[in-house]
Amino acid sequence: MKFKRAKIIVNPAxxxxxxxxxFGKVNDFFKGKLDFDLELTEKPKQAxxxxxxxxxxxxxxxxxxxxxxxxxxxxxxxxxNRKTALGVVPTGSxxxxxxxxGTPKDIISACNEILNGQTKIIxxxxxxxxxxxxxxxxxxxxxxxxxxxxIKDDVxxxxxxxxxxxxxxxxxxxxxxxxVSIKIDxxxxxxxxxxxxxxxxxxxxxxxxxxxxxxxNDDGLLNICLIDKLSAWKVIPRLPFVxxxxxxxxxxAHTYRAKKIIVRANEExxxxxxxxxxxxxxxxxxxxxxxxxxxxxxxxDGQ
Length: 303
Known about the structure:
single chain; four-stranded parallel beta sheet; 2 domains; alpha+beta
């Protein structure tokens, strides 16, 4: 693809600081191939402000993980910028959006994909005024994401391995169902005790759990998966099915497609994660924002 001007934003702290060691490869790869300048983030949320200033660029390349992409997405969207295309060089712990877009894990291959892929306009999710590109989870999965964020530098793991480590820790110490009231589109509220509920734009989260395997990020709909209350010992044998996206036959699993969903806590506040970023609230208004972001996808694999 031909781009006139690119900005490369690097989070050197991503993946336990490993990104700091490898982003030079990205810089070297694009020399002579793109007119670009490069910036490093130095603190959380800084990439949001960087992304608000990209109107003179037709390409933004993110070198980092889902958290950095989350900030870029919010910066672009809050500034109403649908012109600048987002390309991803995945160097984070989960890299779920990159997986959805069909972006290779290998750094040089990902850079090649940015130059040779194709652009696509995708939907975004919006929850309580905050945008997300791939996934929103409330309940158990958010507990796992919160803990994974706390322990990732200590355990030195990433991807599915990190999330499984956090998952078993939560199961052994702090697992419990959540009482919620849910409204899907214009239907009436219903009350349920749940393990989790997701409202996703992409197929996977948590480093590879295919919780919404039929999701598409350009169909104008959120893909919702609700898991009813289960005891902890019943969660474990079901995990392999969720990892490969073969869980929708289970009686405890309920799937929906909708433009809007409201989730309210009936008791304690609810933990949530959106693209791996953490949130706690009593009320969640979740909506789809159609055709909100231009991205670069693999010609072969992007949803």
